[in-house]
């Protein structure tokens, strides 16, 4: 079985470390690439021949934020089908609605508890492994842990 190719775009080193640890604990075969700002994310995406399985996208990053990256991703023919999961500490509903309208697939509010983080990442990986990554109705857009 091929590994799930994941990108985590997040500038917080602690969050990146916890994300990697959660993946290890879930024991799912993954290939994780971490980028720490939006410019690097867009550069990395331009080099892929085959789309990653999913992108976990933080909103508050230097150089180019998650809103800008999502807009660019959805405008590029090559990247339109990339599953994008917003991964943010914020849960401001106006922003959540805007991200839904811009085409994000799911929204996760970063949990402060490691077991909840592992649980919600596991939910996303289960969705990815079924190759069923369409945008849900808005009431199911925010993934709960």
Describe this structure in words.
The protein has a single domain (4-140), classed as 3-Layer(aba) Sandwich (Rossmann fold), CATH 3.40.50. 41% of the residues lie in helices and 17% in strands. It is built from 5 helices and 5 strands. The chain has helices spanning 13-26, 38-47, 66-75, 93-101, 114-129; strands spanning 4-9, 30-35, 54-57, 84-88, 106-109. It has a 5-stranded parallel sheet, sandwiched between helices. Helix 1 crosses helix 5 and helix 2 packs parallel to helix 3 (66-75).
In percent, how helical is the residue content? 40-55%
The helix tally amounts to 5
* CATH topology term: Rossmann fold
Radius of gyration: 14 Å
Name the beta content range.
Answer: 15-25%
Largest sheet: 5 strands, parallel
CATH superfamily: Response regulator
Topology:
Layout: E1 4-9, H1 13-26, E2 30-35, H2 38-47, E3 54-57, H3 66-75, E4 84-88, H4 93-101, E5 106-109, H5 114-129
Parallel strand pairs: 1-2, 1-3, 3-4, 4-5
Helix pairs in contact: 1-5, 2-3
Outline of this structure?
The chain has helices spanning 13-26, 38-47, 66-75, 93-101, 114-129, and strands at 4-9, 30-35, 54-57, 84-88, 106-109. The protein is of the alpha/beta class and 145 residues long.
Short descriptors:
145 residues; alpha/beta; Rossmann fold; globular
